[in-house]
Amino acid sequence: MKRFGTGALLGAITAFFFDPGRGRARRAGGVARARGVLNRGRRRAKRAGRAIGARAYGISQRLQHLKEEPKSYDDATLAHKVESELFRPADVPKGKILVNAVDGVVQLRGEADTPEMIDDLVRRTRKIQGVREVESLLHVPNG
Q1: The whole model's pTM is what?
Q2: Angle at 125 between CA 123 and CA 128, to 5 degrees
Q3: Which of 13, 32, 54, 120 is found 20 to 30 A from 88 (Cα to Cα)?
Q4: How many structural domains comprise the chain?
């Protein structure tokens, strides 16, 4: 009984694809669909491989640059580096604080919103590479 069902199925498929009227178009359509499926699979695999490669590259770069290499900065470059590090958060009043650097000593001048912000700015400035000392001339606005 199983042989009969298999034979009937193969006969129906053969009749479908080798029909004298539409068989050629059906075969061409089947081949095109199969190519499309294979090409989609190939593109997806390629994309996944690139994503995995990019992720691996990013991880290797992070591992190579875990610790920043020591650099010597001139005063202007150090001041700009401190500004770029300190003024990243949106809550820091950029226009109210001036940064000067002389021989690795960074001076912070101006007005901060709260005493906690002053402490945070000084603490973050001390962590920046190239800063030897921090002089805080920051104050809170008068009441």
Answers
A1: 0.53
A2: 120
A3: 54
A4: 2
Segment 16-32, tens digit of pLDDT? 888 888 888 888 988 89
Let me know if residue 70 belongs to a domain: no
Task: Tell me, yes or no, whether 112 lies in a domain.
Answer: yes
Question: What is each CA distance from 99 to 79, 93, 95, 102, 122, in whole angstroms?
Answer: 6, 13, 11, 10, 11
Structure tokens belonging to residue 123? 């603490």
Rounded to whole angstroms, the Cα distance separating 99 from 103 reads 13
For residue 139, the cross-strand partners are 111
Q: In this structure, how many other beta carbons lie within 10 angstroms of the beta carbon of residue 93?
A: 13
Query: How many other C-beta atoms lie within 10 A of the C-beta of residue 125?
Result: 20
Asked if residue 111 lies in contact with residue 138, where contact means CB atoms within 8 angstroms, the answer is yes
In a domain, 69, yes or no: no
Residues in the chain: 143
